[in-house]
Amino acid sequence: MDLHLKGKNALITGGSRGVGRAIAFGLAQEGVNIVFTATRLSPEVEETLEQIKSYGVKATALAVNLKDGKAALEMIKKAEAFLGSLDILINNAGIWLQGWIEDIAVEDWDLSMDVNLKAPFILSQYFAKANLSQGRQGRIININSQAAFNGSTTGHAHYAASKAGMTALTVSMARELSKKGITVNAIALGVVETDMIRSQIEENPGYYESRIPMGRVAQAQEIADIVVFLASPRSGYLTGATIDATGGMLMR
Hints:
Blueprint: E1 9-12, H1 18-29, E2 33-38, H2 43-53, E3 59-63, H3 69-83, E4 88-91, H4 106-133, E5 138-145, H5 147-150, H6 157-177, E6 182-189, H7 195-203, H8 207-210, H9 220-231, E7 242-245
Parallel strand pairs: 1-2, 1-4, 2-3, 4-5, 5-6, 6-7
């Protein structure tokens, strides 16, 4: 199926590994030019960049600390300048800090909100302003979590709260922007085998699988396939939606 994405331009936060990396590859295979972010430009990031370029698209990587709102804003401006314009924004970067309610430091709470919620807002606001000023349509896709709806059972209340905020932000932006040509959707993840959670899976063998009706954790490529569809014109009548990609953990 031709997804009609060739020549589009996308910014993906946290695109150097895990789900973000799989999304970058998936979009590049469809001919989308890519800017992705990482916390630092390591040899692994450079290797990912070269692999993306091998699909014949224009691509670069930008280092940014998303807890800094000003840095996030400067980053998206650089991405826009590199690509000329932005058609797709994927707010994927996030942190998953550990801490039971009685132990969470205020600093960890603030950091979770800054990276997981405030940065997506700042980037989405700039993306919307830039596209609307040019009469351009666009796609905003937020990578969310089942924890936004179910809360946390494993000591990640600050993460769950930030993702619940992303749910409301997704719907609110969709209500305001959809009639102007910018759709806003999200995908709620369950347990995906990535670097961020692999140690937890290994420390608790069978625990996460027992919570998933399908009986297995997701692979990053399975998530990327859905996101690529959401980024395409084929999803043109979807907005304000959160796609359940949890293997049945959410079922909403």
